[in-house]
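Re: that backbone. Tokens:
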């Protein structure tokens, strides 16, 4: 401290500017990251890449400690832990907080297919729609890196899924909310059950299939039972965000705030490419293993999307009843999606 004061006095005496000099220069900032994923989950590797990029862009001044597998708290508690400062960065699955991130859940609507498309849409939407960032701000956190999956498909043990009519009457496990409304549009019977119970549910004939993405199919070993699957449907996408405590972010020097955001933006791109790459490889692996796929190509898009016409009105009505600007947010989302998605 004495050295800093002495240097300031000397600079003043000789008339040199103090611009660029900071008492904080070189200070190390240690941040905690918490999520719910086991060490074997693909996101575990993505988080490590984020930490490496954060350290790189901050010249080592940002250092991270990672707590996976609900070590700091259950999935539904991670947002609260981040708000309270128990962790600096936490994984927030938006579908678990529909009352807090309703406008952000516009991303569940069927207007894109791949993770890369979804990530680009959500990134641009956050940049142009203050209503979305206001929800994050009200929760005292800031979205630092995005994990938007490809939209969900349908898997079944019952029979081929060659056309939309083949979905009628299928009892399928869905995640609830808009996913349930989407399933009903195809005449499916949505069933609510924990993810860990899907395998047994298929074995015992409680359900005929599940609405999931291929990485989740592998995660629950459902390829051992499901013999028919679509690929390219738009049954809703899942959005997971690693959010940083707003106070933590503001307390970082400006250059480190930018370093953290830069690392987050690059990790968003990495996640999307990794996810889409997994989907492509799993499609090939499952097909070799005997699973029968129906590919929803651009030529088939209109036929398969037809049952979903007007579903956005259900979403809009749900949130406008709560006094939220759902139609405005939807129109922004739709405009961006039509530019980006094929």
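Recovered sequence:
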């Amino acid at each position: 401290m004495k050295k800093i004061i002495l240097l300031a006095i000397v600079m003043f005496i000789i008339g040199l500017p103090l611009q660029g000099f900071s008492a904080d220069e070189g200070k190390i900032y240690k941040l905690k990251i918490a999520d719910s994923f086991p060490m074997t989950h693909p996101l575990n590797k993505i988080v490590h890449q984020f930490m490496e990029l954060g350290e790189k862009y901050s010249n080592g001044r940002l250092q991270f400690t990672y707590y996976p597998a609900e070590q700091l708290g259950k999935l539904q508690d991670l947002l609260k832990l981040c708000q309270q400062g128990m962790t600096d960065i936490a994984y927030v699955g938006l579908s678990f907080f529909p009352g807090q991130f309703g406008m952000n859940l516009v991303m569940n609507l069927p207007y894109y297919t791949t993770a890369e498309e979804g990530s680009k849409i959500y990134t641009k939407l956050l940049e142009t729609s203050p209503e979305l960032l206001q929800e994050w701000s009200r929760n005292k956190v800031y979205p630092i890196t995005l994990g938007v999956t490809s939209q969900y498909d349908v898997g079944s043990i019952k029979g081929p899924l060659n056309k939309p009519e083949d979905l009628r009457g299928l009892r399928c496990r869905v995640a609830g909310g808009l996913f349930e409304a989407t399933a009903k549009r195809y005449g499916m019977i949505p069933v609510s059950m924990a993810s860990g119970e899907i395998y047994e549910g298929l074995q015992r004939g409680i359900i005929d299939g599940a609405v999931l993405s291929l990485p989740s199919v592998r995660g629950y070993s459902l390829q051992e039972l499901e013999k028919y699957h679509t690929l390219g449907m738009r049954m809703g996408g899942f959005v997971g965000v690693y959010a940083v405590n707003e106070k933590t972010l503001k307390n970082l020097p400006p250059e480190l705030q930018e370093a953290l955001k830069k690392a987050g933006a690059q990790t968003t791109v990495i996640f999307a490419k990794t996810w889409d790459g997994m989907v492509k490889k799993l499609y090939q692996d499952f097909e070799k293993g005997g699973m029968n796929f129906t590919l929803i190509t651009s030529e088939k898009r209109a036929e398969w999307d037809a049952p979903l016409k007007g579903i956005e009105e259900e979403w809009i009505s749900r949130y406008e009843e709560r006094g939220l600007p759902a139609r405005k947010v939807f129109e922004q989302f739709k405009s961006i999606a039509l530019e980006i998605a094929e």
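Confidence is low (pLDDT under 50) at residues 1-23. The CA atoms of residues 76 and 96 lie 7 Å apart.
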